[in-house]
Amino acid sequence: KWDLPTASPASNFHTENIAQFAADVDKASGGKLRIQVHPNASLFKAPEIKRAVQGGQAQAGEILLVNFENEDPLYGLDGIPFLATSYGESLKLYKASRKALDDKLAKQGMKLLFAVPWPPQGIYTKRTLASVNDMKGLKWRAYSPATAKIAELVGAQPMTVQAAEVSQALATGVIDSYMSSGATGFDSKTYEHIKNWYDTQAWLPKNAVIVNKKAFDALDKATQAALLKAAADAETRGWKLSEEKNGWYVAQLKGKGMNILKPSDQLTADLRRVGNHMLAEWQRKAGDDGKKVIEAYRAQQ
């Protein structure tokens, strides 16, 4: 019996996909491997899950890769604004970086089972944004090094708030803006506090399901094969689900009275400049490994 903690609520499509994955593993292994999913940061908080898997406190877990950019630049790759802005581009970026991610996790005693993107990121704000200048002084929720960096570059004030605490932070005025997908806005009932969502399609950050290498190696070959097959199916299904859900979430936000806005050309150009600055900075930090990944990605375009 394995434990698999995740920070998303049980009703989120990522968690539903993982629950299906766990059911598939149970069935394919003939009940030899049972995976207990712990949603909504109930077993470990989001920042603790990777360490818990690495140390064997949980055999598997789901993490948001960009949260660990400070540990290694590679984890922050899909949080670089405007590098990959669609599902197609995002998949190419994932294919270009999958081996490097696998190698990185292997060095830490872990293995990547599968990864699924969040829908494209937009900006939730009470303000009208004509350009980046209008973002100055926003109390901005930062949930990763990249989102904190954006705040710094546009003159907003970064506040660290976990997904499970967004609703409360909005209600108490700790934050008045943040960048995320339609999914987070819907899950956290952001529409009760904020009326504007700028559909910037800035990036599609991925959640990865990782497994402790020793726990994986302890399984017999047939169970390992069943686990990997279920993981491959979950990845394919998850990408499809994310894309379908994206339209659904945006429609829900609209239905709840939110303005779904197309960013102005000026705002888009300003944000792209922020993205280019962050890509250049990322490549400096990531060195040759990062350069190879970006080259492999560009070669597919």
Shape: globular
Total count of strands: 11
Radius of gyration: 19 Å
String of helices and strands: EHEHEHEEEHEHEHEEHHEH
| Sheet with the most strands: spatial strand order | 7-6-8-5-9-11
Keywords, please?
301 residues, alpha/beta, six-stranded mixed β-sheet, three-stranded antiparallel β-sheet, 47% helix, globular
Describe the structure.
By secondary structure, the protein is α/β, with parallel strands linked by helices. 47% of the residues lie in helices and 17% in strands. It is built from nine helices and eleven strands. It has helices at 13-28, 49-54, 87-107, 145-154, 166-171, 182-187, 213-217, 221-255, 265-300, and strands at 2-5, 35-38, 60-64, 110-117, 122-125, 139-142, 157-160, 177-180, 196-198, 206-212, 259-261. The strands form three sheets. The chain has a six-stranded mixed sheet with strand order 7-6-8-5-9-11, with helices on both faces. Strand 1, helix 1 (13-28) and strand 2 form a beta-alpha-beta unit. The longest helix has 36 residues, at 265-300.
